[in-house]
Amino acid sequence: KSRQSSLDVFF
Amino acid sequence: MFKLILSDPSIFKTSFEAISSIVDEVQIEVDSDGLRLNAIDRSHITYVHLELKERLFDVFQCDEPIKLNVDTEELMKVLKRSKSDDVMELTVDGGSLIVTFEGAIKKTFKVKLIDLEYETPESPSIEYPVKITIPIKTLKESIQDIEIVADRVEFNIDQDFLKLKAVGEFSDAEVEYLHGEKVTEDARAIFAIENIKEMLKAEKFADTTYISLGDDMPLTLTLELLNEEGELSFLLAPRIEE
Q1: pLDDT by residue (tens digit) across B106-132?
Q2: Dihedral sign for Cα atoms in the order B175, B14, B199, B229
Q3: What is the pLDDT of residues B205-227, one digit of tens each?
């Protein structure tokens, strides 16, 4: 199982 | 005075093939150094950056910095009407971007400038442990191999290989590419194939692609033109295993 992460944590 | 002329519109067309499949709207910034844009999709999964240096253009007149907000789908429809031996000219008139293609015939399109609905954050600077090069056609073929079994792919880079792996319901697949780079750390992350295919629509932009990777970090795919006249890069958020 995997979930799509967001780029927000890298900004 | 604002006028840009490009004797080969394919760079523009190819870039927007990918950009328009990722984002609905973009702000194109032009100043004396060149043209650039940064955009992120609404779900904040893919970030795209395009830069075309002033010296890439046959004519580059831009007296003062200008921001052109366009609907990418509308611009793409226009760019699709160009032929590779056309000369493309970009000017601005009132609230429109004027795009002309001149070859055997001359075509003029007026694309309305729009108000942007949301702002794009500055490109994040991420330190990566691993960076390799791969011909973009090789990467594209590898993704095509993987996608027959699954909709997500694991990128795995060790000191010798880039391995793409997928575990499907009925079949598994693994593609190995000997990268020939000096890599001292391993890196592994999983991505949605659908998002990777959007980025690969820009395959004709440049032959050489750089892949930057780290464990569960975003994938950075950078396409660079000869003599650093232009760059198209993407940042794709990983899928995280639970």
Answers
A1: 999 999 999 998 788 888 889 999 999
A2: positive
A3: 998 899 999 999 999 999 999 88
Helix ranges (H only) for B185-241 are 193-200
B170-175 average pLDDT score? 97
Taken in order B118, B236, B183, B209, the sign of the CA dihedral is negative
Contact status, residue B88 vs residue B15, Cβ threshold 8 Å: no
ipTM over 0.85: yes
Position B117 scores a pLDDT of 80
Tokens coding A11: 């900004």
User: Would you call B192 and A4 a contact, using CB atoms and an 8 Å cutoff?
Assistant: yes
DSSP B160: S
Nearest one of B208, B176, B185, B191 to B130, comparing CA atoms: B185
Q: Which of A5, A8, A9 to mutate to test the interface with B (most CBs of B within 10 A)?
A: A5
* Statement: residue A2 has pLDDT above 90: no
Nearest in space to A8 (alpha carbons), one of B147, B49, B120: B120
Judge: B44–A1 Cβ closer than 8 Å, yes or no: no
